[in-house]
Amino acid sequence: MAFRVAGTGGVTNTSFVAGGYGLFVSTANQTNPVASTANLVSLDTAIDGSSGVTNSSGTITFTTAGVYQVIVELFWTSTVGANPTISQWLAQNGNNIANSTQDFQILGGANTVQASTCVWHVNASVNDTLKVYWSCSDTRVSLTYQAALANPTRPASPSAIVALQQVA
Predict the structure, then answer these.
(1) Is residue 43 in some structural domain?
(2) What is the pLDDT of residues 19-55, one digit of tens each?
(3) How do residues 65-117 score in pLDDT, each as one tens digit?
(4) Would you say residue 6 lies in a domain?
(5) Number of domains in the chain
């Protein structure tokens, strides 16, 4: 992806600046084995070739410094209809990012799937790491992967999606 940068006189001094990006997903169910514990969101597949960022099982490393827009989509399910609340947040270099926690409540009964989407901007230096975590007091909650379906034929649905795009 490229960003167009123009000088003060219109488009006369135009150049293109390539930004870092990446799109990573999880193709696995991710359980909550211990109540109220931080669970790292595992990411096992790179969907789009990345530039400026790498991923190793959910640890994203920035190889290009800058400000990144980070979009996190997580797909939740619960085996009971108790409407549990889930927290998700970001950590950079092993430290929780202030004010990044978002809480969600699963509604709709047992085995329904609900998505949460959060968008953040992260200022990253070269070799900084970023991780997505979640927690729930109910061990019957999980991130859920859905296999491909038929009638009509449609592709699988990841349990987690993390998209990063350098914006500055």
Answers:
(1) yes
(2) 899 999 999 999 999 999 999 999 999 997 778 999 9
(3) 999 999 999 999 999 878 899 999 999 999 999 999 999 998 888 898 999 99
(4) no
(5) 1
What is the C-alpha to C-alpha distance for residues 4 and 129, in angstroms, rounded to an integer? 28
Domain containing 111 — which CATH number? 2.60.120.40
Please give the structure tokens belonging to residue 62: 């920035």
Q: Would 11 be classed as within a structural domain?
A: no
Query: Cα 105 to the chain's mean position, in Å?
Result: 18
Q: H-helix or E-strand containing 51?
A: strand 45-51
Q: Which DSSP state fits 126?
A: T
pTM of the model: 0.87
CA distance 116 to 160: 10
**Gap between the Cα atoms of 21 and 70, Å rounded:** 10
Q: Which phi-psi region, left, alpha or beta, contains residue 137 (left: φ > 0; alpha: ψ -120 to 50)?
A: alpha
Domain that holds residue 122: 20-166
Question: E-assigned strands of 29-65?
Answer: 30-31, 39-40, 45-51, 53-56, 59-62
Rounded Cα distance between 68 and 85, Å, is 28
DSSP structural state of residue 146: B
Residue with tokens 């019957």: 140
Structure tokens at 127: 């070799």
